Backbone:
């Protein structure tokens, strides 16, 4: 597929293959990196702070007021 895409004969493909292969792999790495970084840009809102109560009665009374 690569040989026909770039219209290379067999000898030229053998000569250029390592460079072409590395370019193809690097493009794939860059696409994966972009994909990961775009999904990592999610903003998480912090949860509201809730007062902790040590005593059950104090906890129940907090709803009465």
Residues:
């Amino acid at each position: 597929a690569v040989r026909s895409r770039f219209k290379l004969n067999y000898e030229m493909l053998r000569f250029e293959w390592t460079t072409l292969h590395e370019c193809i792999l690097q493009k794939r790495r860059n696409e994966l990196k972009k994909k990961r970084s775009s999904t990592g840009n999610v903003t998480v809102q912090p949860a509201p702070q809730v007062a902790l109560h040590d005593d059950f009665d104090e906890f129940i009374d907090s709803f009465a007021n």
